[in-house]
Amino acid sequence: MIKISQKLKSQLWWLIISVDYDYSRITIAEHDITDEVLTLWLEDKQDFKNSIDECLQIDIRVRDLARIIKTENLNSYEGSKLHPTKNFAYKARIEINTPLLWYKEDASSLEQHWTREAVLKALLTQLVEEGAASDYTY
Q: What pTM, to 2 d.p., does this model score?
């Protein structure tokens, strides 16, 4: 799960409402990554901003980014391995690199884009699910 502050939840709900609940209208205008944080600037595809200062800035811990990469199997592929002692092949997930190193060093720019989109999808899904769950608390 991604840690979302109450202020960020409010800002995200405001963005969702402003796009008339059409999540496909929410796009990543810009991004930046450091050793600790992936920063995404979000905007409405139908209402482009003149600068990123006008966009909604979201900071995602790289620990959460790594977890999403691993969960979505973005840094691995389905392949065959040979058992080291019994000489038989079996299907397994083959990891290309650790999640963050894969993102920074191995992933193409398109794969990095898909990863950021997966982070946005996970964030919005978590927000909606938490909102729905809080509606049904007794």
A: 0.82
